[in-house]
C-alpha cells in the first residue's frame, strides 16, 4: 500500500502542476503568505497577484511553510503533498500495529477521501494524521510528542485542538496538559523569529478577525443540513454547537471507562467525526478526517450494531463517492450540494458512535476490538 500511496501522490502532484497555477491555487494560499510574513504585512487581506481567495490559517503555519515557499513550484507542491501523505499513512499503520492485513484494508477504505484532499492540495490529510498521532503517542505514554502533535494540529486548523479531549483519559493528566500548553506557547510565539512585536500583534489580530468572519458561512455540516432541510434559523447555530459539544463531552464523565482501551479508541473515532460535522465551514476535502474516524470504528466495532453495514454503505455512496466522477455533476449540483448530503451519513454515524460511548459502562464487554484482543494475547 505504501507504493500505491507514494505513486498516487507523485501522479496527482504532476497532474496539477502541468495544468498550471490555477489547478494548485490552494498550494499558493499556503506558501505565499510566508513572504508576506517576512514583509510584516497583514496575512489576512486579499493578494490577488499572489493567489485567489484569502489566507485563513495561523501565522505559525505561514512560517513553517517557508522551506517550501522558496522552492520551485513543482518541487514544493510535490513535497507538500508528500508530507500530507506520509504523516497520514504512517499514522494509519500505527492504528493497527502488527496487523498488516488490517492496515492494508484501512488504507484502502480511506484511499478515495485521501485522494480528494490531495487533489485539492489541502492540509486535511496532515491534520487527520496529526490528530491520530496525538492519540498514538498518548497510548504509548509519550506526553511531549502527543503535546507537539496536538499543537501542530491546532495551528493548522483551530478545531484540531479537539483531539485534546483524549488527554483526560491517561495517567499524568497535568503533566500531559503542560506539555501541550508548552508546545502551544512555543508555536504561537514562533513567528517572532521573523516579526517585530507590533507586527506580531497586528497579524494575530488579523487571524482572529478572519476566523470570526469566516464563521458566518454554512457548508457541509450539521448546520448546513438543518438549514437546507428544515430552514433552521442560523442565529441559533451557537446553541446547536454547544449541545453537540455537551453530548461529545458527557461520556468523558465516566471515569471508570477511562482505563478501557476500546473506550478511548471509540472516543477518538467520535472526535474525528465531530470536528467535521460541527464545523460549519467543512468542505468536501475536509471529510478525510471524519472518514478516518468512521472507518476506524467500522473496522473494529462493526460487530457491535446491525447499523454498521448500512452506515458503511451510506458513507461509501454519499460521503466518499460523491466527490468523484462516479456521481454525475448534475446530480451532485441539484441534490448533493443543495441538501448537503455528503454530511448526512457522518451525522448518523456520529449519533450511533456517541450512543455507544454513552452506554459503554453498561455494555463495555461487547466492545472488544480485534486490536484489543491482540494486545491481550500478547
UniProtKB/TrEMBL annotation:
It is a multi-pass membrane protein. It comes from the Bacteria. Keywords: Cell membrane, Membrane, Transferase, Transmembrane, Transmembrane helix. It holds the Pfam family GT87. Its main location: membrane. This is Glycosyltransferase family 87 protein. Belongs to the glycosyltransferase 87 family. The chain crosses the membrane at residues 104-123, 143-170, 177-200, 238-254, 266-299, 306-323. It is found in: Cell membrane. It comes from Hymenobacter saemangeumensis.
